[in-house]
Design goal:
The complex is a heterotrimer of chains A (129), B (384) and C (258). Chain A is 49% helix and 5% strand. Chain A is mainly alpha-helical and 129 residues long. Chain A has a domain of 90 residues. The relative contact order of chain A is 0.12. Chain B has a single domain, classed as Formate dehydrogenase/DMSO reductase fold (Up-down Bundle), CATH 1.20.1630. In chain C, 31% of the residues lie in helices and 14% in strands. Chain C is built from nine helices and nine strands. In chain C, strand 4 and strand 5 form a beta hairpin. The chains are: A mainly alpha (129), B mainly alpha (384), C alpha+beta (258). Chains A and C meet through helix 3 and helix 4 of A and loops of C.
Amino acid sequence: MYNGSKIIVGLIVFAGIVTFPFIYNLGKVNAKPEPKIDTPVIQQLKEKNCIESKEFMKANHMQLLNKWRDMVVRNGKRVYVNSKGEKYEISLQNTCLKCHSNKKEFCDECHNYMSVKTHCWNCHLESKG
Amino acid sequence: MFEKALSGDRRYWGWIFFLLLIMGTGFIFYIKQLNYGLGITGMSRDISWGLYIAQFTFLVGVAASAVMLVIPYYLHDYKKFGKIIIFGEFLAISAVIMCLMFVFVDMGQPMRAMNMILYPTPNSIMFWDMVVLNGYLLLNLIIGWTTLSAERNELPPPKWVKPLIYISIPWAISIHTVTAFLYAGLPGRHLWLTAIMAPRFLASAFASGPALLIILCLTVKRISSFDPGKEAIQTLGKIVTYAVIINLFFFVLELFTAFYSKIPGHMHPFQYLFFGIEGHGKLIPWMWTAFILSIMAIILLINPNMRENENILIVSAVLVFISTWIDKGMGLVIGGFIPNPFEEIIEYSPTVPEVLITLGVWATGLLIITVLYKIAVSIKEKTV
Amino acid sequence: MSYESKANRRQFLKILGFSTLSGLGSIPAIWALTPQFAIRNLQSEKRWAMVVDMKKFRTEEDYKKCIDACHTIHNVPDFGNPKDEVKWIWKMPYRNTFPEQEDEYISDGVKQMPFMVLCNHCKNPPCVRVCPTKATFKRIDGIVQMDYHRCIGCRFCMAACPYGSRSFNFREPRPFIKEKNPEYPTRTRGVVEKCNFCEERLSKGLSPACVEACKDNKALIFGDLNDPDSEVRKVLESNYTIRRKPELGTQPGVYYIV
């Protein structure tokens, strides 16, 4: 190979740089995220249901929030009818966060684990306490 | 062909390194701007566009000026421009990239830039500006690269380039007309609400662009063995002469409308720019400098004996470039915001971070010109 | 490398570049063709408007309570300097609010009289026309609304507004909000904001905060212009009113009884 020694050395260095994050974290155990839903408001609910099922929310909460954003901001429509026919006011701060008032133990648990940066909180206020 | 830009003497690499240094500084301050917000600049609630958009406006004109080479060469077979046409196209590429960079650093939420593409809004002139600028960049990249490669292989360029070149002519006019439309359609800004905003922009563009091209070509002639040709430079000089005179004429037309009609809203921006209002007059020295340099340039250019002297010509080109830069950048963009909609005078001066970021973008543009011109010159030196 | 393999490599790169561009360029096309979530607009054909009765604004307190009501419930920051200032409603002297009414024979008292100024929610808004992302748009009930999620901070709307109604977040606003209202979001740096006619209150049947704050003396009257029985219509019929810069054709929704 022309310039073979340089190429092979370069490839080894490159492989080293690319795999460094994985090698560095070898052996370190990352705890599974456990979002907590034991806020005061939730504990007082008779039926501990979110506006949609847990499976739906796990998979689709961002799609739902985007849909809500367009419904409220762009169309002024503030009432959401869920799959069971129940009506809720569309508001991240006033509906979702009323029950899930513990962002650090709830939202951040999974987002930090997955290294997903949520930009919601740049504008939307987290509830106090 | 990029390998041609990787071989050069110490002067070349010294220049590249110097540009990279300025680019690096600009980049660091841009990160600071991202963290702090645009408040790090001198812009305020009343002067919501400042140095960045002023540079953008000026550079769109420089980019459009490539058409001043394309029209004579391709439409009218003016063979004398044959050697330097690539330099015009490469200048256009660099200028458009600088324009896009200036818009980018001016945005409050640059990470959302894709919103302009995801939510196209045809009634917004800014949307069209994005379309035409990117289209022009693409056109010049394709045309420039293809024609240069063909020249390198000592072949005529492929046939499909011709229609693209013809398209680039009205397209070049459109980029500057659309940019003028950004300003000319706003009902609340009296300095900008004029039908001759687009013609003024074009006149100033055809003065500043070819002037820069003269400077660049004469520099190339000095530092390499490539000669752009005396006649080509002279024709460029004639184009600059006419354009500078027309630019000044248009300016006088604006003054007439404002000061003969005596409508306060029309007069106030000019009064602020040249005489100051209520003691505020930060831009006065700038505007008068631009005006005087412009007159000096005309005097130097209008006499053919002086124009034919390339040393005097390069001086007048520099004068033209500086005076159009002041007039279009600071005079027009910042002057449009003063007085504000409440007829208050709030002034603007750029801050140090703002200037450093601006210099960083300019350095990027100069780097692109350097690299592209090096490639073009290397190829032309061999094939001449 | 032979000339042939060079040509193949270049062809490959060209095809790669072209397909990447087409792929990216097809995003808006696909988006436009995808059926959008069918959102029926529930706003009826109202036209919200406001009448400012300047005769009722006498003391400093009259202005302050309207401004404070608005700025507190909407988490409007107070940067403390005019450069970064963000304001949704504020006061301006007569000669600045109506600069085209320049006249040396108007009394100094009138010239200095502070007028409440805010976004006029024009019928024909230049800011909406120029926004490249439709981040500012006109609702069917007449409110010129901001979508802070979509704004890219280009500030074209600020240049277009003939009334100077819009503010930009040049800095992070949160440290400068005295008391945050937990029921309303803040904004973040890099977006433009302005009065929204309290659309979040209107949706609950309440009147805007500034109107509510001075409801004792009815200094601000708010209502639906399309409803001939509304208070605004009645006030407009019985009083002579002026609007800011009417010659521009923007058809502002804020009227002033001088």
